[in-house]
Write a structure and sequence with these properties.
- This protein is α/β, with parallel strands linked by helices and 346 residues long.
- It contains eleven helices and twelve strands.
- It has a domain of 163 residues: Rossmann fold (3-Layer(aba) Sandwich).
- Helix content is 29%, strand content 20%.
- The strands form two sheets. It has an eight-stranded mixed beta sheet with strand order 6-7-8-3-9-10-12-11, sandwiched between helices. It has a four-stranded antiparallel beta sheet with strand order 2-1-4-5, with helices on one face.
- Part of the ABC transporter complex GsiABCD involved in glutathione import. Responsible for energy coupling to the transport system.
- It catalyses: glutathione(out) + ATP + H2O = glutathione(in) + ADP + phosphate + H(+).
- It is an enzyme of class 7 (translocase).
- The complex is composed of two ATP-binding proteins (GsiA), two transmembrane proteins (GsiC and GsiD) and a solute-binding protein (GsiB).
Length: 346
């Protein structure tokens, strides 16, 4: 049985992170048609992350995955919506931003750009603890310990600068740096997508081991569904700033209930020559996020679109235990011709 974290405030049944109505619009740059318009990067996102789980987040480029991550880290501030961490509202007197960031850290995609080129590896890892009040000697000792845990010998790598180590080693440094404040939640934004496959496998195994060792919770953002399948307990699919589907990883990846999720899964390349696709499972580009279509945002690309999809926006409704989809076709009695029949009243 996993030992309870002394920082735990609500017990294992309380979500570690709850996001309610998260909205981030980026204003247009003016001009004849840009004035007053905004890019709806994140447009009403709701989800929760349970303690000790890994939530995988997938979707096309531009769907809002990375913007959501930046909002969770408060690198960008949301226009609307609440972030609740273990029962405490971010920004309230119970949980200010500094205390929140001690418990939530992020690993970015670009391992080189996210490290200060003027700091050595050990200085980069020790910087956070020092900024939060740890002595220089204690911060350096913690940095050396974490470097060992991510497979980098401090005497060999501690004095090197970012340009003197490989991409995989830099990402290990970033992971060590993220762990230096002893967080409870780690947000991994495409953290392995820039690595060679052999190095990617090593880092994924490292992340799995560290999660167990430190009792971590992960939000794992990726465009690689095979990686998400390996890492995740639950999966959230995003499309055009909204959540299209969320549920257990096995259910989402084997029996998707949203056509967009099914198209993403069908888009995976196969090594079987008899399983090659003759037609692309998904055609066209996502609609303009400045002016998304009415009704279901996916209806312009969906082969199952019906009149109701063009008129009424679907809610994120339950379609199976712990499984939710924003699709009229998946909800009984929705009015879609392919929807399950509504249950008769007793």
């Amino acid at each position: 049985m996993t030992e309870l974290d002394p920082r735990d405030r609500g017990g294992p049944a309380q979500p570690l992170l709850t996001v309610d109505g998260l909205v981030k619009h980026f204003p247009g740059k003016g001009g004849l048609f840009g004035k007053g318009l905004a890019v709806r990067a994140v447009d009403g996102v709701d989800f929760s992350v349970m303690k000790g789980e890994t939530l995988g987040v997938v979707g096309e480029s531009g769907c809002g995955k990375s913007t959501t991550a930046r909002l969770l880290m408060q690198i960008s501030r949301q226009d609307k919506g609440d972030i609740v961490f273990d029962g405490e509202l971010l920004g309230s007197r119970a949980l200010d931003l500094k205390a929140y960031r001690r418990q939530v850290q992020m690993v970015f995609q670009d391992s080189y750009a996210s490290l200060n080129p003027r700091l050595t590896v050990e200085e980069s890892v020790a910087f956070g603890p020092r900024a939060h009040g740890l002595s220089a000697a204690a911060a350096l000792s913690r940095a050396h310990d974490l470097l060992r845990r991510v497979g980098l010998e401090p005497r060999r790598f501690g004095g090197r600068y970012p340009h003197e180590v490989s991409g995989g080693q830099r990402q290990r440094v970033n992971i060590a740096r993220a762990l230096a404040l002893e967080p409870r939640l780690l947000i991994l934004d495409e953290a392995v997508s820039a690595l060679d496959k052999s190095v990617e496998a090593q880092v994924l195994n490292l992340l799995t081991d560290l999660k167990q060792e430190f009792g971590l919770t992960y939000i794992f953002i990726s465009h690689d569904l095979n990686v998400v399948r390996f890492m995740s307990d639950r999966v959230m699919v995003m499309y055009l700033g909204r959540v299209a589907e969320i549920g257990p990883a096995d259910a989402i990846l084997s029996t998707p209930r949203h056509p967009y999720t099914a198209a993403l899964l069908a888009s995976q390349p196969s090594t079987d020559p008899n399983a090659r696709l003759e037609e692309a499972p998904l055609t066209g580009d996502p609609p303009n996020p400045i002016n998304p279509p009415p009704g279901c945002r996916f209806h312009t690309r969906c082969q199952f679109a019906a009149d109701i999809c063009r008129i009424r926006e679907p809610g994120l409704d339950p379609v199976a235990p712990a499984h939710f989809a924003a699709c009229h076709m998946a909800v009984a009695g929705s009015g879609h011709p392919k929807a399950p029949a509504a249950a008769m009243a007793a």
